[in-house]
What we know:
The protein is an alpha+beta fold and 101 residues long. The protein is 16% helix and 32% strand. The chain has one helix and six strands. The strands form three sheets. The chain has a two-stranded antiparallel sheet.
Amino acid sequence: MFPKPISTLLALVLLPCLARGDHKVIFPPGYSLHERPPTEAGQPVVIEASINLRNILDVSEKEQIISLETTLRLYWKDSRVKPAEEYLDSTDLIGPYITLN
């Protein structure tokens, strides 16, 4: 099972996809976003992250505080979820992928 912050993030990303009629991904019966994706021999799930600095909102030198606007992206492979063929965006070294917005 994922830690609470990761479960919450997964819910925020996946629930809108499940609620819409134009499914870009295919979820198998019994899929649970609270279960971590299967891996070989129970190895940890590799999650890659990137942070994009979008804006510097405020800098307070006296208090040594900086306020930033950022975008955090997390990437991981879940073999249980399959993209719908008509929505495939591209292919990279790992394989075909789609972008969920």
